[in-house]
């Protein structure tokens, strides 16, 4: 069976060749004369350390003026940039940064995340405190509480709380202290991570507040032949350009 490409007429091959050359012509026009004909073309050295030139006093003043121009917001009598104000508000009160950025639809996500983590952390904290207090009572008055603990499965210890009143051995109380303390510490870290995440979200939204996402932005791409160092034949690629109308 003959392959479909072999069965194509010669005029189709010729037309395809012309089409490829027509698409590649703009890219060839932009290449330097030595890009293809010189097989010994190599990339320039890129491992040389680049030292930034020192700024003059005039350049420093211009840079300071440009930074000062960005500080268009005020908070507690201080002039701040929009991201700085969003960060401070989000750090003071969760969700305040989202309110400042007018991203109200994110408030249920922020409060749902932090509220859930805070509730679970409170659960482990209260149980840890109960088991810790139970251990202290036993150490303080062992003759009174050890018999009560031995019968706690049938008669809960009246001075214990939050689950510790039903533990019938000191070993189980010790195990409960370790378990609830470990999980409490874990959820404290998760709560802090969630708080930092909503602060990061507020900064990102504040930075994107003035980002142009209008319809006057267009994305163009076109095929191109790119020079390959050390080879005579260029490689095939594509160039992408973002232009403003």
Protein model, in words:
The chain has helices at residues 4-7, 10-30, 34-37, 57-70, 82-92, 96-100, 107-140, 142-150, 170-207, and strands at 73-75, 78-80, 217-226, 235-244. It has 245 residues and is mainly alpha-helical. The protein has a domain at 63-207. A two-stranded antiparallel sheet has the order 1-2. A two-stranded antiparallel ribbon has the order 3-4. Strand 3 and strand 4 form a beta hairpin. Mean pLDDT is 75; it is low at 1-7 and 22-42.
List the SSEs and their pairings.
Elements: H1 4-7, H2 10-30, H3 34-37, H4 57-70, E1 73-75, E2 78-80, H5 82-92, H6 96-100, H7 107-140, H8 142-150, H9 170-207, E3 217-226, E4 235-244
Antiparallel strand pairs: 1-2, 3-4
Helix pairs in contact: 5-9, 7-8, 7-9
Signal peptide: 1-29
Keywords: Signal
Organism: Hymenobacter setariae
Helical content class:
55-70%
CA gyration radius, whole angstroms: 35 Å
Oligomer: single chain
Average pLDDT: 75
> Which strand-content bin applies to the residues?
5-15%
**N to C succession of SSEs:** HHHHEEHHHHHEE
Strand order, main sheet: write it out: 1-2
Structural class: mainly alpha
From the spread of the alpha carbons, the general shape counts as elongated
**What kind of sheet is the major sheet?**
2 strands, antiparallel
Low-confidence stretches: 1-7, 22-42
The tally of strands reads 4
End-to-end CA span: 53 Å
Helical stretch tally:
9
InterPro entries: DUF5683
Keywords: Signal
Domain DUF5683: 81-237
Pfam families: DUF5683
